Structure to design on (71 residues):
């Protein structure tokens, strides 16, 4: 499919990861901060993806918590 090839970028600065993903004409950018007691994530979602952000946020919080507490 034309335009579907994606591009990714990432850059670590200490405990902060800045990333971007582009595919199918859409770009998602964000920042992940790794703290002593928590990990925070900020993501910019374009268009339709922004409309489903609340459901995506809930899912990411649940999965993220499971990953961080797994021993």
């Amino acid at each position: 499919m034309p335009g579907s090839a994606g591009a990714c970028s990432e850059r670590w600065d200490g405990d902060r990861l800045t990333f971007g993903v582009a595919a199918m004409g859409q770009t998602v950018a964000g920042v992940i901060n790794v703290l002593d007691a928590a990990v925070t994530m900020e993501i910019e979602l374009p268009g339709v993806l922004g409309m489903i952000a609340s459901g995506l946020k809930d899912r990411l919080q649940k999965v993220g918590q499971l990953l961080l507490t797994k021993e």
Notes: The chain has a mean pLDDT of 84. Residues 53-69 form the longest helix (17 residues).
